[in-house]
């Protein structure tokens, strides 16, 4: 194996570069030095050659920009389609679940996706360090393709949910690997700008996914919305195979183990370096902690012994995970030392709170308009666009401002305040007779979410040790997944419980018996189409109960953003 030692001028640091070096160098270019980058891509494209007549910083910036453009262009295919999938499900979930007479379980179309993502999220960062970003990205695209195909051919609600689980296990890698590929190439200060470009493609996907998916559901059926995605992700696999450079992120695990004073076995296989036990315990902790939140109050009462048993089991798995990561794992899947850093924890709280609030909103908006105005899937999807537009503006603006000023804390505060303003308007004004102008009240919520997506990543990258880049990035996306599950589960539970309670009270006022009331509530929570077939007075009661339930869900979003605001106030800003 040929090895070349490169000396870092100005710091006296030597780095060994060979054919197993990182895919794209984890370089931070400062004001006084720059590193030579090694990978299997064309040397003329990536490796700047410093001469007496050339400015090394300008040369590095020029060539790195070209490399990033090539890689990001490939990432955009999967990013666009995956985000279109998300808004597509948001727009059509009432129709999909109603086809199986299972509307009350429609949140599982999202929760199953997010649970699978949370269970696999932390593995992708470490696996990509060992096997390379390209290989893991191809696996992720393949899983997403298989999952979409299974959803399209599913004949029961739970077959569809299984397809969402497989898609979620692949989808959890797309964002984290994309961000890692970008941060491998560019200085931290420029990451937000490049990420904003990726976010823009994601936003376009989310913008088109709802209306186009709704239109397909109204014309040829919702199944083709998913079947059509499968070949697109297979195309993305081929693009990765032919155009993404090969390479591996190696050596960082050994550095981390050495820093923690733990033994290093340099002869062990790459697979043995993976902390599978830690990953399994983390997945079990997340599952057993979030499952009672999802089923409590809807499937079984909150006072049911199973709820307490699941929370107790979650505590056991959480303790075992902490013990394994601290004393057993040589290369932890998530170094617990990161949880000792105040700014990392606070940024996770901000991101999780904002995602929970915004996903709760995105879940409720299509249902609100389908219930109150009986709109088609296409129109329900269009009603998501204001929030998506706000998200795009927030993401692009954050990237520009961070690159221009090097500051991000104020953006986190502005984001949470904007979101709180949005949810307050919904609480005060959305009571069933919403006009076109009032439907724009969701714009500030999307704007705040977009700001946090860009500023939050910069906050954790600036606060963390560079050797933990993959871990903190995976942790951020894990936070997104947990926030998504909490938001969807809590909003669904609050909305359905309030709806049942209010509908029962309204029906009781019509002098209906308990048996009849129970039958009506079961039908109303199984399909939104029941509104069209019920008696006029009963139909009006169902709509009113849904509106009040959705109002309480906006209250949850407001509380989540308020917690994020408190965390944002105490985040320390690091110099970029």
UniProtKB/TrEMBL annotation:
<feature type="compositionally biased region" description="Polar residues">
    <location>
        <begin position="1"/>
        <end position="11"/>
    </location>
</feature>
<dbReference type="InterPro" id="IPR020846">
    <property type="entry name" value="MFS_dom"/>
</dbReference>
<feature type="transmembrane region" description="Helical">
    <location>
        <begin position="345"/>
        <end position="369"/>
    </location>
</feature>
<feature type="transmembrane region" description="Helical">
    <location>
        <begin position="552"/>
        <end position="571"/>
    </location>
</feature>
<keyword id="KW-0812">Transmembrane</keyword>
<feature type="region of interest" description="Disordered">
    <location>
        <begin position="1"/>
        <end position="41"/>
    </location>
</feature>
<feature type="transmembrane region" description="Helical">
    <location>
        <begin position="305"/>
        <end position="324"/>
    </location>
</feature>
<dbReference type="InterPro" id="IPR036259">
    <property type="entry name" value="MFS_trans_sf"/>
</dbReference>
<dbReference type="InterPro" id="IPR011701">
    <property type="entry name" value="MFS"/>
</dbReference>
<feature type="compositionally biased region" description="Low complexity">
    <location>
        <begin position="31"/>
        <end position="41"/>
    </location>
</feature>
<feature type="transmembrane region" description="Helical">
    <location>
        <begin position="381"/>
        <end position="402"/>
    </location>
</feature>
<feature type="transmembrane region" description="Helical">
    <location>
        <begin position="67"/>
        <end position="86"/>
    </location>
</feature>
<feature type="transmembrane region" description="Helical">
    <location>
        <begin position="442"/>
        <end position="464"/>
    </location>
</feature>
<protein>
    <submittedName>
        <fullName>Major facilitator superfamily transporter</fullName>
    </submittedName>
</protein>
<feature type="transmembrane region" description="Helical">
    <location>
        <begin position="136"/>
        <end position="158"/>
    </location>
</feature>
<feature type="transmembrane region" description="Helical">
    <location>
        <begin position="224"/>
        <end position="244"/>
    </location>
</feature>
<dbReference type="GO" id="GO:0000329">
    <property type="term" value="C:fungal-type vacuole membrane"/>
</dbReference>
<feature type="transmembrane region" description="Helical">
    <location>
        <begin position="411"/>
        <end position="430"/>
    </location>
</feature>
<dbReference type="Pfam" id="PF07690">
    <property type="entry name" value="MFS_1"/>
</dbReference>
<feature type="transmembrane region" description="Helical">
    <location>
        <begin position="274"/>
        <end position="293"/>
    </location>
</feature>
<keyword id="KW-0472">Membrane</keyword>
<dbReference type="GO" id="GO:0015174">
    <property type="term" value="F:basic amino acid transmembrane transporter activity"/>
</dbReference>
<keyword id="KW-1133">Transmembrane helix</keyword>
<feature type="domain" description="Major facilitator superfamily (MFS) profile">
    <location>
        <begin position="71"/>
        <end position="576"/>
    </location>
</feature>
<feature type="transmembrane region" description="Helical">
    <location>
        <begin position="476"/>
        <end position="496"/>
    </location>
</feature>
């Amino acid at each position: 194996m040929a090895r070349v030692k490169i000396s870092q001028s100005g710091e006296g640091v030597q780095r060994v570069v060979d054919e197993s070096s990182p895919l794209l160098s984890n370089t931070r270019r400062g004001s006084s030095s720059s590193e030579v980058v090694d990978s299997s891509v064309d040397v003329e494209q990536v490796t700047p050659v410093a001469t007496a007549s050339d400015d090394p910083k300008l040369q590095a910036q020029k060539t790195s920009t070209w490399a990033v453009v090539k890689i990001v262009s490939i990432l955009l295919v999967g990013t666009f389609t995956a985000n279109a999938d998300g808004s597509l499900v948001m727009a059509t979930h009432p129709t999909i679940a109603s086809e199986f007479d299972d509307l009350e379980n429609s949140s599982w179309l999202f929760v199953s996706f997010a649970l699978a993502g949370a269970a696999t999220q932390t593995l992708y960062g470490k696996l990509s360090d060992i096997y390379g970003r390209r290989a893991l990205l191809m696996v992720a695209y393949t899983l997403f393709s298989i999952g979409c195909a299974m959803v399209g051919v599913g004949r029961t609600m739970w077959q569809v949910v299984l397809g969402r689980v497989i898609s979620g296990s692949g989808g959890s890698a797309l964002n984290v690997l994309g961000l890692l590929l970008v941060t491998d190439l560019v200085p931290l200060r420029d990451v937000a700008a490049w990420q904003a470009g990726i976010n823009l493609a994601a936003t376009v996907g989310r913008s088109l996914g709802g209306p186009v998916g709704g239109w397909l559901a109204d014309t040829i059926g919702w199944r083709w919305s998913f079947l059509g995605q499968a070949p697109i992700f297979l195309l993305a696999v081929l693009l990765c195979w032919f155009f993404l450079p090969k390479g591996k992120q190696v050596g960082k695990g050994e550095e981390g183990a050495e820093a923690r004073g733990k033994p290093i076995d340099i002869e062990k296989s790459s697979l043995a370096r993976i902390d599978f036990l830690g990953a399994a315990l983390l997945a079990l902790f997340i599952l057993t902690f979030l499952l009672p939140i999802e089923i409590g109050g809807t499937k079984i009462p909150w006072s049911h012994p199973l709820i307490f048993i699941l929370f107790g089991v979650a505590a056991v798995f959480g303790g075992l995970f902490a013990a394994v990561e601290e004393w057993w794992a040589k290369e932890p899947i998530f170094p617990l030392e990161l949880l000792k850093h105040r700014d990392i924890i606070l940024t996770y709280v901000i991101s999780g709170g904002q995602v929970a609030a915004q996903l709760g909103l995105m879940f409720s908006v299509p249902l609100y308009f389908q219930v109150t105005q009986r709109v088609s899937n296409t129109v329900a999807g269009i009603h998501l666009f204001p929030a998506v537009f706000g998200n795009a503006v927030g993401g692009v603006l954050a990237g520009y401002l961070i690159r221009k000023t090097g500051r991000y804390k104020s953006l986190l505060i502005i984001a949470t305040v904007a979101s709180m303003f949005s949810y307050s308007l919904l609480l005060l004004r959305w009571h069933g007779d919403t006009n076109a102008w009032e439907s724009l009240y969701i714009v500030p919520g999307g704007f705040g979410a977009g700001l946090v997506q860009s500023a939050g990543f910069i906050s954790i990258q600036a606060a963390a040790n560079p050797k933990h880049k993959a871990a903190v990035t995976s942790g951020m996306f894990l936070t997104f997944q947990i926030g998504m599950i909490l938001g969807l589960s809590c909003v669904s539970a609050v909305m359905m419980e309030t709806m049942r309670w209010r509908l029962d009270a309204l029906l009781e006022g019509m002098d209906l018996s308990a048996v009849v009331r129970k039958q009506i509530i079961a039908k109303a929570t199984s399909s939104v189409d029941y509104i069209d077939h019920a008696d006029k007075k009963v139909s009006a009661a169902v709509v009113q109960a849904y509106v009040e339930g959705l109002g309480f869900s906006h209250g949850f979003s407001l509380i989540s953003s308020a917690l994020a605001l408190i965390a944002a106030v105490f985040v320390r800003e690091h110099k970029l």
